[in-house]
Amino acid sequence: MSPDNHKNIDLKFNTIRKEAEKRRAAFRDAPVPKIHIGMATCGIASGALETKKAFEEALVENNIEARIHTVGCFGHCYAEPVVIIDHPDSGFPPIFYHEVTPGKAKMLVKLFLGDGDPRFEHIYGATEENELIPSVTDFSRFNQEKRIVMEKCGRIDPEDIYDYIAAGGYSTLVRALKLDPEEVIKEVEHSGLRGRGGAGFPTGRKWKLAKSVIEQDKIVICNADEGDPGAYMDRTILESNPHQVLEGMAICAYAVGAQQAMVYVRSEYPLAVKLVTNAIQQAEKLGILGKGILDSTFDLKIDVFQGSGAFVCGEETALIRSIEGYRGMPRHRPPYPVQKGLWDKPTVINNVKTLASVPPILNHGATWYRGIGTQNSPGTAIFSIVGNVVHAGLVEIPMGVSLRTLIFDICGGIPNNKKFKAVQIGGPSGGCLNEDFLDTPIDFDSLTKAGAMMGSGGMVVMDEDTCMVEVARYFLDFTQKESCGKCTFCRIGTYHLLKILRRLTKGEGLEGDLELLETLSQDIQTGSLCGLGKTAPNPVLTSLKYFRNEYEAHAKEKRCPALMCRALTAFYFDLELCARGCDACATCCPVDAVFTTSNRKKGVDQELCVKCGECLVACPPEYDAVRKVSPPHLVPYIEKPPEKNKKDHK
Amino acid sequence: MMLKLLVDNQEIETREGKTLLQACLDNQIYIPNLCYLENVERPSASCRMCFVEIEGIKQPVPSCTVQVRDEMVVKTDTPGVRQLQRTALRLLLSVHDVDCKNCHANKNCELQNIAKFLKVGLKPKRLERYLKETQIDETHPFLNHYPNRCVLCGKCVHICRGKHGQSVLTFAKRGFDTVISTYSVTDVSSLACSDCGSCVKACPVGALALKESS
Amino acid sequence: MNQELTEEEKDTLKHVAIKLETFEKHRGNLIPILQMVQNNLSYLPSEALKIVAQHLGILESEVYGVATFYNQFRFHPPGKYPIKVCLGTACHVRAGDIILENFERKLEIPEGQTTPDRKFSIERVACVGCCALAPVAIIDETVHGHMAPSKVEGLILRIKLQEEMEERENKQHEPGQS
Ligand SMILES: Cc1cc2nc3c(=O)[nH]c(=O)nc-3n(C[C@H](O)[C@H](O)[C@H](O)COP(=O)(O)O)c2cc1C
Ligand code: SF4
Ligand code: SF4
Ligand code: FES
Ligand code: FES
Q1: When you count CB atoms within 10 A of the terminal residue's CB, does the N or C end of chain C come out lower?
Q2: Where are the domains of chain B?
Q3: A532 touching B (Cβ < 8 Å)
């Protein structure tokens, strides 16, 4: 763009930035306390709406003035609803409170805002270093993280574009617009940024390819389909800071020469859809998107397309088919989307996190970015860590951190004094790694070498009570249901895999099943058309490799060592320990399978029992009489259950 | 421009722009295939039968997706290729109602041909058989469809669309449950199914048939 | 798919037909249109597929082929209180399937179906984003965390009672209108 243009851009943006700064100052300097409430889906699901209402009511009741600031997700999902109270008059720094129920909210208004008592017993930590209270930065969950993509998540109001601009937002777009598109691409290339959608393709190279296609109409698509059933970082980013993604998209579009862009979000994410749509409108209104961006000659129209719930539509060629109004069945590549994509136009498809990494990279420079993470995988990795782990939630760490550090230091390890058993990385396309891999550094290449993959960034931590055969069955159940059905290996092959795993978990394994699992898995890997089929067998192959003895126990002894597979386990009550006359288990059993023995103790009617484990939870710890065994024939004979029990059931 | 390739140590000539599969078939080198249609811009590549090994590429690739290049060196019968082809065939047979005696395509069926070529029995032992409930879909006024014979190659859908601009036949549902459907097509006066029959001819197996009466 | 439309649904369908006109006749609009239809009717009856096909000038079978591909689209009316049980990874590890089973048993319908009185339907969903509360069930928008099999009956009972109360109140407020 011409220098003339540069001046216009600066002029236009400076007016906007001044307005944003004015608004921020007005908020910051207002002489009242501020209450920041995390209101992304995870917060809302944990009751943030009720908490907010309680704050509002309590402020009125107590006649206290304060500002409520709704923000996105902080990533500390284990602690939701999360609230930060900034009450400068009290002399305390801003304080982070976790699990703020409506009751707690009311109490905090009255006692902290009213009387200046921050209620130490409820404090999680101060958000900054100070002399009075320990700060959250003392916890490794905070200080070992490195936030680039999620830096502003949970700190700004996602519904207010000025909040983003006041925090420095869109200034990188301004800088980019004053550079040559080639220079932008070169910077991204130098940064070594690799696609965060799973495969880790170098983003700079992708943009360069798109740029080199001589064609007027190009398209940029942000892939927010996020189909992994246990991952939600893309949603969180869109819900907490949609503008950073839009800024990245605009920079990408400018660099490759596209005037049309699309955010492909799953319709199961209604809040994300709403917030992104709203963000686009706000940006258009300010002239940051749309025609003649910031009075320059660059136009960009961004639309939102709602995906209809098909995991395979995260695959780029299937995603394109679904926007075109067809069944989302992948196509053979080449041609790649950058050559022939949506409506046959050159199309750059990038993941949410990839695009959100772009503004910080251009802002701080490629060298800075290269300094974070590892040689071949610069930057940060974002995981949603769930399962048997103390501090579940979203974590952003530099690439290269070991699994051990992530799971045990940052996320607090395994709860209830259980032993670590395995970690599944990369969702349904990833693999299960055992203890031996805990010191593996987290980066694209090391994970792939170990047999897992970065994939979606879903991470499930499993303790000793988790059965690996059952976990493999769970993931296969998912991929099998989500196969598009186009190609033979994936359509029929995964169905056979699932059937075999199912019969193993039921103790009905056949001779040769393990070998069949193995060869079939390998053929599906090489034979399938798209990434879904190619990676679907990963959970089976890795668990077979690292936990083969568990498979053998299921196949040969009809035994589930982790006591998880319900068909292979049974409950009974240890009569030595069972307290006469106690009814705790009987009242909680959902199917009335607990009967009273002739000496007023309890027995389990094995025919009725659905093995839900409620009795195990209900039995008072001082008796601890419930036993779980595998295989089921280990249950001692107690006495015949009464006939009447059966008549009530069909 | 004419190109020279080396397939199974035999030199063949072909024109630029052809797919490798077509080039081999033209030169009487058989490669099993079910979903391949000539002159289609983007191959469906769904049956996963036509694998070959190409020098310089690590894993077997479906030959219908490869454009011929001069001096390509190709092998059509390596153990790796055969392993994939046999597994693909066994998988297809595991959801196939093998009842050749009562099928109109008997002796004129690609599955039978491929099975013979690959020396695979029509009733594979290691895999359980899973058939769909519907044996015959008779909803279309002129066509019958046999889901348990269909290999979901998609030829019928493609041919119909090519001939009539849009297709009466469509894939429906997803994944393992995918079927060919003519949902709600009861009025076909506009599409002249009665004297077309292209889809029936295109079907490599016996999954489509004109109704007796028509 | 051959259930009769209720009078109310017929009205909505007319409304849908009008809204349809605001969509350009463009194949790329097929999925947004189907989403609009389902948002209004809460499922896709065959009558709706027909008008969508007509609007876009494509065959009904094409519309059917696309609609049946995606999880989002339903071909049966959901219950008044849709129950969604999370079977995302975290919920699965904490035995979400047992919760699902309990709902199925108590309501006597399998997952994916609606009770004959159209009050409840059961669906399985993938991660709803509150894994820390696993296992999770959502009834009519409200998230219920830390589910246990023994909680299932209580939840259903509560809704049934609430229904009865509402009905009674309605009767009191609108005498003669029932
Ligand atoms: C079955 C399957 C599902 C996928 N799902 C997603 C997804 O949900 N989000 C995503 O960004 N990429 C997904 N991908 C990867 C995309 O095809 C594509 O590589 C990616 O969006 C490119 O973006 P990146 O270069 O920024 O990583 C998926 C791939 C496969 C094979
Ligand atoms: S691998 Fe699976 S999802 Fe991919 S094209 Fe084949 S059937 Fe479809
Ligand atoms: S009916 Fe025949 S042509 Fe059509 S998909 Fe099935 S096997 Fe192929
Ligand atoms: S003929 Fe090549 S994949 Fe079917
Ligand atoms: S897995 Fe159920 S809420 Fe995430």
Answers
A1: C
A2: 2-90, 94-213
A3: no
